[in-house]
Amino acid sequence: MTADATADSPVVLINIFKCDARRQEELIEHLAALAQVQRALPGFVSGTLHRGLNGRVVANHAVWSSATDWKIMTRHPQVVAAMEPILALATFEPHLYEPGEVVEA
Length: 105
Hints:
Elements: E1 11-19, H1 24-39, E2 44-51, E3 57-64, H2 67-75, H3 77-89, E4 90-97
Antiparallel strand pairs: 1-3, 1-4, 2-3
């Protein structure tokens, strides 16, 4: 976080999941179920899942009210349970970002 950002500032999660192309749809289904669990938790703002055109990746773009809320979510028992089938299908690399510039047409 930069000097201007605080632990209570909104954060953007960008998480890239890598899977076997034959399992991408199954992965999307599990990630959608996870998102339904997350949306009921404090701090969740929004989430979007993106299918990679190559069939081997899924990107998750989510906004959380703060890094603290996101960290608490990762330890929630329902989230841990929902992650089990995802861990069996994919590897992933989550990163938190500060919200940036929005460019629209």
